[in-house]
Amino acid sequence: MPKYLIKRLIEKSGDDMKNETGKREKLIMSAIGLFAEYGYDKVSIRQIAADAGANSSMISYYFGSKQGLYEAILRELINNFDEFIGVLRDEKLDPREGLRIYTRSISDIFHKYPPAYVKLIYREVIKPSQVFQDVVLNKFKSNSAVLLKMIERGKEQGIFLKTLDEKTVLLMLISIINLYFLTKPLHSMVIEQDESFTESYLRQVLDILLRGIEVKGHDKT
């Protein structure tokens, strides 16, 4: 086959791949917006397809069903946790640095997605769908176990106060960090915020938390 034909086939294959990826991503983005606004149960395949400017059969083609599409969205979310949770498993990691990594990573995840995504997660927090429970809950439980073990390790190493309840500390951290982003549409209307403000806020929150749970000189035995 002539070289120019081979080149054109390669280019066409690349263009097709980009188009396929583009169509799939457009369906996902439309679904995120609609699910966030109306909830999983009240959104139809036809609505998603119309919003994305696609044929409804494309949802079956890419995802199998509406549930498959929603699962793809939720799996996209939880896949973001894998890398930093893997780092937190390292028993040589200073637990204080581990808490900083967690905080930065959660911030990065929230900044990665459009506001509708945050609204979708908020909706699931308030009223979890069955799909959310099936896909996300077990993953969150296993991730929480890693964090709890890291806090417990800090107690064993004399870094954190032995009187601490690690579940309480974890709940405080998760609540403070995640609630900031989930309620940002509201409090940003009262307090002007930009990315530097968010970074400063998270740093101060973590510093305050660490000062409360770290062993001080007079606490050491």
Write the layout of secondary structure elements.
Layout: H1 3-38, H2 45-52, H3 57-63, H4 66-88, H5 95-112, H6 115-126, H7 130-156, H8 166-182, H9 184-187, H10 195-213
Helix pairs in contact: 1-2, 1-6, 3-4, 4-5, 4-7, 5-7, 5-8, 5-10, 7-8, 8-10
Compact summary:
This protein has 221 residues and is an all-alpha fold. It is built from ten helices and no strands. It folds into two domains: 64 residues, Homeodomain-like (Arc Repressor Mutant, subunit A, Orthogonal Bundle), CATH 1.10.10.60; 146 residues, Orthogonal Bundle (Tetracycline Repressor, domain 2), CATH 1.10.357.10.
DSSP helix count?
10
Question: Strand portion, in percent?
Answer: under 5%
Largest pleated sheet: none
Number of domains: 2
Structural class computed from helices and strand pairing: mainly alpha
Q: Looking at the structure, what is the overall shape?
A: elongated
The sequence of SSEs as H and E is HHHHHHHHHH
Question: Compute the gyration radius: what is it?
Answer: 22 Å
| CATH architecture assignment name of the largest domain | Orthogonal Bundle
CATH topology of the largest domain: Tetracycline Repressor, domain 2
Would you count the extended β strands for me?
0
- Into which percent range does the helicity of residues fall? over 70%
Unreliable residue runs: 3-18
**CATH C-level label of the largest domain:** Mainly Alpha
**End-to-end span in angstroms?**
80 Å
Q: Give the CATH H-level superfamily of the largest domain.
A: Tetracycline Repressor, domain 2
- The overall pLDDT average reads 87
